[in-house]
Prior knowledge:
Elements: H1 2-38, H2 50-60, H3 65-78, H4 82-86, H5 92-96, H6 103-121, H7 134-142, H8 149-160, H9 169-178, H10 187-197, H11 203-216, H12 246-250
Helix pairs in contact: 1-11, 2-3, 2-8, 7-8, 9-11
The site of iron/sulfur cluster has 15 residues, from helix 9.
Amino acid sequence: MLVRDLGEEEREEGHVARANRARRECARRVDASLRRCYGDRPWGPRFGGLLDGLVHTILSQNTSDANSHLAFRRLKERFPRWEDAAMAESGGIEEAIRPGGISRVKAARITELLERVRRDFGSYCLAPLAEMEPRAALAYLMDIPGVGRKTAAVLLLFQLGHPLFPVDTHVLRVGKRLGLIPGRAGPAGAHEVMDALVPDDIKYRLHLNMVEHGRKVCRARRPRCGECCLRCLCPSAQGHGGVAGEDAEKR
Ligand code: SF4
């Protein structure tokens, strides 16, 4: 009985390993096709620093890109160094970031963040996160109020090149339709899947290209399967016996 159970376990493990290999291979092929469509996406740090990126993230909540960029620019003009902002008079930050909306709440979050960074690292700089294991840096950022898994992964991938795969709404949808992400996975599970599945050397490029593909072609409603460069790889392609749309995402 025990011998038979072990045999079954081995067969099951072999099946899982083969399925994972096939999905990894599929991720490589998706990357190659999207790269031809949207380009190579060489990596380079996006923000002036990790703390800049984090403040920018706070400012971008519940407002447009244009408003959050303006709020960030005004904040940096008024307080060129983060220590200046930390020592600002009450209302100083709030006034500077007003174009970004809900400025009182955001100002309080920024002040709290600056205090915390100073307490944890002795200065207004998050550079020590570059020395941490990616998972430890992820956990640190996710412990900050208002910072979720996607935001933390974006900051660490875009600013430090840590091998993490951020999953936003576009990646989740496209990944499910392609069969890379299980249909019933939520955002947290999808992050784990994509972190493990996508080779580190293509995480940055594939993330950006999946986001662009989700915006332009594999849209939530009426995906443009007829002109999609992933048609031949996609089990959900309309016109190929697939079921792109909500049904495909629930499988
Ligand atoms: S074939 Fe259709 S469902 Fe599949 S990735 Fe392309 S647009 Fe999306």
